[in-house]
Specification:
This protein is an alpha/beta fold and 394 residues long. The chain has ten helices and 19 strands. The protein has helices spanning 17-24, 38-51, 67-76, 85-92, 110-119, 129-138, 167-180, 200-219, 237-254, 268-271; strands at residues 8-11, 33-37, 55-60, 79-82, 101-103, 123-126, 143-147, 155-157, 184-189, 194-196, 225-227, 261-264, 275-288, 294-301, 322-323, 334-339, 348-355, 363-367, 387-393. The strands form three sheets. Strands 1, 2, 13, 14, 15, 16, 17, 18 and 19 form a nine-stranded mixed β-sheet that branches. An eight-stranded parallel β-sheet has the order 5-4-3-12-11-9-7-6. Helix 8 (200-219) runs parallel beside helix 9 (237-254).
Amino acid sequence: MESSNPKTHFYEKELDIRHVIEESDLQNLDQALNICDLSSLERKLRLWQKLMPKIKPHYAVKCNDNPVVVKFLADLGIGFDCASKNELKLVLGFGVSPERIIFAHPCRPVSHLKFAKKQKVLNGTVDNEYEIYKLHKHYPNSNLIVRFKSEAKKALCPLGDKYGCDAAADGAALMLLAKALKLKVTGTSFHVGSGCSEVEAFDRAIEKAENIFRAGEFIGHDMNLLDIGGGFPGIDDNMFGKMAEAVNSSVQLRFPDERVQIIAEPGRFFVGAAYTLICKVHAKREVRSKDGKLDQLMYYLNDGIFGAFAGLFYYPEPVTPQLYLDEAENMPKFRSVIWGPSCDALDKISGDLFLPNLNPGDLLGFRNMGAYAMPIASPFNGFDVPETRFYRAK
């Protein structure tokens, strides 16, 4: 994990990627470079507060756990969604109060529960009877948030096969069990799926949440927290606006009581657009047909899917490089493939591109690389993961 105290560079009005490249001497470095614009996180928070002022964001640490990013968001005053003891340690280490944290993992190891208990992190999710018994034994004074499944029809990563009870069939039963064990159920949660692109999914889920609230109150629980999860886009602000409108309408209809605290777990929404990855072409290869005609060009970069492109394993989205060449737009294009540096044939970044005839040493930029990348990057085959440098507006 990188240091939480690296140098932060400042810029005047807009971050100039070309200028960063020129001053970074990338031609003489083997390592790829992440450029993180911290001010992008602040702009995203302002957008959230403008469009969903009643819903408090709790940043999903798993999305990007860089200490600089986490501290910056902590200083902005938002909450956090943690899923493990180490994520709790990271967030608490920056002075975040336990009340600003939800331990949003339905199946937690006992040692992690004991750490949460010691740190007084009360709010945590649960979705089955075995975990309720575990909480009864190891953390009986915690606040149970019943997580149910309600997935979007369109999402990059559905989660319902792994987590979430059936709201209609199991929700009331779990709350009855908690009541019998004298545990407190204080709310409910859901997650429509990471990378959701179906606006209507939120209303369906919030309707189920209302039914769970009513059942919980009937059983005798003090229901006061609704967690609408994540799934919000990181680069499509227009789609986010539509989601915000749908959420606001549904919440106003089904949860008008101001006593109910409503939170969310955005991850990629905050950091997706904050990172630009700069890679260098370190080798190339020409593939020709039997008659000697150039069929395609292959480029080998200094980072790949075992590094900052690791998210392609889980979220296979189109990759479009930015070219930092003069007159690149006017240069002839050739069918091209870009590979990562490792010996593994799976290390293929994109095989459906048309690019100019590049040379070793040329640089390619990849925008929107902040989400679900560096936390799962590894130095596989001995190739270093990218360095990250931080910038913010003055």
